[in-house]
Amino acid sequence: MREERNKDIHLKPVAPRKIISVEIVTTLFLRDSLDYIVNYVDADGKPIDLTKLSGSEHAAAKPEYVPAEPSYRYAFHDWDGKEDVLTLCDTCYKQLGEFVKEGRQKGFLSL
């Protein structure tokens, strides 16, 4: 973080890379049904008399639209860690707060 801060102040503004993630969701419909009853078969076991079952018609499945919400995160170009820019900033801010607190406790700071 310190290196990025120094680059930003002394060289040129740092432009972190923007990472966009999109999760796409789809619905899969699986269906199985028995539409006929075999009443009689011939000598070879092949059906010769079938009865169609009533009420076995299935309504067509309607796909449900689920919008894909993108998520954004920012990372420094040379950073190999898992933390993004906002997480690193938060960590540094907390460390600075602890530094100031310790300085006050030891009498180095009178803020």
How would you describe what is shown here?
The protein has helices spanning 2-11, 85-105, and strands at residues 17-22, 36-41, 47-52, 70-75. The protein contains two helices and four strands; from the N terminus they run αββββα. The relative contact order is 0.18. It has one domain (2-105). The longest helix is centred in the last third of the chain and has 21 residues, at 85-105. A hairpin with a 5-residue loop joins strand 2 and strand 3 (47-52). By secondary structure, the chain is α+β, with helices and mostly antiparallel strands.
Give me the secondary-structure topology:
Blueprint (H helix, E strand, L loop, with lengths): L1 H10 L5 E6 L13 E6 L5 E6 L17 E6 L9 H21 L6
Antiparallel strand pairs: 1-4, 2-3
